[in-house]
């Protein structure tokens, strides 16, 4: 997890973004984004002690967690496991059927590698 509080603290102490990135084990791009978001929210060091790390993260990047974990259509695992018990049925065939179902429904399917990963 990004150390937002530490990045803001080190910036308040006058460290360069490169040194902050090295100190926090983060990229310079991440440090730049955090400091830009902090400026937009008018946050500077010292921060309010009541401002917890999760609240600080949501304050800096309010829509970062609003996205769903995946927009892909999940396969019907119960059906797949049952079908795999039949002779002549393999993962590739079931994936092809899954792709067709997704296409007809207008959903975004998993690629074959993710499909195999999730049905294990």
TrEMBL record:
Superkingdom to which the source organism belongs: Bacteria
Tell me what this protein is called: IS21 family transposase
This protein's species is Candidatus Fimimorpha faecalis
